[in-house]
Write a structure and sequence with these properties.
The protein has 364 residues and is of the alpha/beta class. It contains twelve helices and 13 strands.
């Protein structure tokens, strides 16, 4: 089944209460010049295609939102997400073993986005981008912002995919409700509290792109390990290791359910995929009811698929009360095996109990 044929997901629904609810109650009144008044223009928002915003949602908020496409290079041919058929070309290129690379957007592309929003009347812009440890997009945004006709606040989300996108969505809705640039920056600063966990069939693409070390790739291949990875402090880290595809799916479901439960009913959950629609739908089905909102199913952006390869599965969780950042799963300490009672040596009195042996220390 083609990714575009997945069941349609409802548009993003703003959560009751919180920033958006309070601001709407306060600013919808005409005397504040808000959406219910005259002349209201919100702060503009710019992001990149790595945020994986659902296309319908982005289109519905396109008046004061700009999504800058990130280029994907396949055998020196440059494709731009959103304007070219990148998913098809990427899948074909990966299957044929072609060279696949990505690049940051040019500062001029970001400057054009800022200029468009300034022409639309905005007086301030907040620009939110994927982790600076994974891409130079944040640096390009800062270069473009230096020439922008209106002030731009650039935010490094320290994450990627809908872990980044959930924050963009909240910022866009808060901006539409009349939030100040300071309030929006505070919301955006919480982006690292959103988490993404993903599993790839092979670590080779991540190794080629410099996202993981060579040794990790070799071990994953030789030992048939299927690591579940996450993003912590902007970097890709190993969360835990599993050995079968079925176990991988089960663990992604369990991780998402556990974190959604910890975050509470306001948690947001999404599933990402690339060329494995059936597995994605299985996870969506298993996560139904994990929060009060329907689980989104969104294809992996091409700029991320170029590094993960086909067959990637991911879950992104945001909203609610964030638990601690993801990291390596804590291993339970091994229990020392009971030792057999030793027979007395050197003619010791059989009635005298032998000195108990101290178990060897177990590594943490």
């Amino acid at each position: 089944m083609d990714p575009d044929q997945l069941p349609a997901r409802p548009p993003w629904q703003s959560r009751p209460g919180g920033w958006v609810g309070k601001l709407r109650q306060r600013l919808d009144r005409p005397e504040h010049g808000g959406p219910g008044g005259r002349g209201f223009i919100p702060v503009g928002v710019v992001t990149d295609s790595a945020a994986a915003l659902p296309a319908e949602w982005a289109k519905a908020h396109g008046r004061y939102l700009r999504v800058v496409p990130m280029p994907v290079m396949i055998d020196h041919q440059i494709y731009s997400e959103g304007t070219d058929d990148v998913p098809h070309e990427l899948a074909l290129g990966l299957a044929m073993g072609k060279s696949v690379r990505t690049s940051r957007p040019a500062p001029g592309q970001l400057l054009r986005a800022y200029q468009e929003l300034a022409d639309a009347g905005v007086k301030r812009i907040i620009s939110i981008h994927l982790s600076g440890a994974l891409s130079g997009t944040v640096d390009a945004a800062r270069l473009g912002a230096a020439q922008s006709p209106v002030p731009v606040t650039v935010i490094d989300s320290l994450t990627v995919a809908l872990a980044e996108g959930f924050t963009v969505m909240e910022v866009v809705e808060a901006a539409a409700a009349g939030a100040s640039i300071g309030e929006l920056a505070e919301i955006a600063a919480r982006a690292p509290e959103n988490h993404v966990f993903f599993a790839v069939p092979s670590l080779e693409q991540l190794r080629r792109g410099g996202r993981i070390g060579t040794m990790a790739s070799v071990l994953g291949t030789l030992l048939n390990v299927k690591p579940i990875l996450s993003v912590s402090d902007g970097h890709v880290v190993a969360h835990e290791k599993v050995r079968t595809q079925a176990r991988t799916v089960a663990r992604l479901v369990a991780i998402a359910r556990e974190e959604a439960a910890a975050r509470g009913p306001e948690a947001r959950v999404a599933v990402h995929y690339f060329g494995n629609d059936a597995a994605a739908e299985e996870i969506v089905h298993e996560l139904a009811g994990a929060s009060r909102f329907e689980v989104l199913a969104v294809p992996v952006p091409a700029v991320l698929g170029a590094h993960t390869g086909a067959g990637v599965l991911a879950v992104a969780i945001g909203g609610g009360t964030a638990p601690r950042p993801p990291g390596p799963a804590e291993a339970k300490p091994r229990q020392a095996a009971p030792r057999r009672e030793q027979r007395p040596r050197n003619g010791a009195d059989p009635g005298t109990p032998a000195r108990p042996e101290v178990p060897a220390a177990t590594p943490e």
